[in-house]
Amino acid sequence: MSQVVTETMVRVENVHKSYGRGAAVVHALRGVSLEVPRGELVALKGRSGSGKTTLLNIVGGLDAPDQGRVEVGGRDLAGLDEDGLLALRRDHIGFVFQSFGLIPILTAAENVGVPMRLRRADARAREERVELLLSLVGLADHAGQRPTELSGGQQQRVAIARALANSPSLLVADEPTGQLDAETGHAVMELLRAVVRSENVTALVATHDATLLDLADRVLELSDGEIVEV
Ligand SMILES: Nc1ncnc2c1ncn2[C@@H]1O[C@H](COP(=O)(O)OP(=O)(O)OP(=O)(O)O)[C@@H](O)[C@H]1O
Ligand SMILES: [Mg+2]
Question: How many C-alpha atoms does 222 have within 13 Å on its Cβ side?
Fold first, then answer.
């Protein structure tokens, strides 16, 4: 896929998403619009059920809106078929989840290398990038350890390194510190802040974490499926 040229990394226009039907219908998003310029770290807050995960999944191409338009790096996601979405996610978007999502039988280094394997990157280039990323997240000395041999904070740092493997233009993180204690969460958020700068990536992070709300360039709040002024 060609290089991203636009300066607006994420553009969401009037997105609606409902789940269920009839009396059981839930309006998860009711006309959400937002723009995130390249290089910005945006924190998304809001009560449980306000629509944060729904919005992140739609921006990340994991789910489709019922109505409205979503562009990532100038590409209209509605114009992409399954293969196109797969390639977009693999090559341009890094995901970080609350539950880390590491592969248990693989070492930290192997986990970080997975996205590059999916892209059939050259083995030498892959090893070099894995080493660099593990250093970036402060885990150079833990490359050979499996997830169960790492602390929660270390696992999340591996997951962040993995999300950066293919040099994405967009990082999507859904409550990345939700399973961590306050101090570890603080360190992970500071790491996220630092990598957004050093890797020149754009990030959209759903969080309740006060540290990130402070460190973010901008904080958006979702309330009942709508963006409200913070
Ligand atoms: N697959 C689904 N089927 C039915 N309803 C859903 C589904 N996913 C989300 N919802 C509903 O949509 C609304 C928004 O959910 P969402 O997961 O986006 O909230 P959230 O802000 O991420 O909450 P939390 O802070 O608890 O993670 C909720 O009312 C939820 O129950
Ligand atoms: Mg959620």
Answer: 30
Quick check: is 13 in a domain? no
Say which CATH number the domain at 201 has. Answer: 3.40.50.300
Residue 20 belongs to a domain: no
Amino acid at 218: R
Quote the ligand 2 centre to 54 CA distance (angstroms): 7
pTM recorded for the entire structure: 0.93
Query: How far is residue 32's CA from residue 25's CA, in Å, rounded to a whole number?
Result: 18
Contact 28, 77 (CB under 8 A): no
Instruction: Say what the pLDDT of residue 3 is.
Output: 57
Residues in the chain where the model's pLDDT stays below 50? none
Number of domains forming the structure of the chain: 1
How much distance in Å is there from the Cα of 48 to the middle of ligand 1? 8
Residue 201's nearest CA partner among 212, 187, 191, 213 is 191
CA distance 170 to 151: 26
Pocket lined around ligand 1, Cβ cut-off 6 Å:
19-20, 26, 28, 46, 48-54
Residue 89 belongs to some domain of the structure:
yes
Coil, strand or helix: which one is 169?
coil
* Protein residue with least CA distance to atom 6, ligand 1: 19
What are the beta bridge partners of residue 94? 171
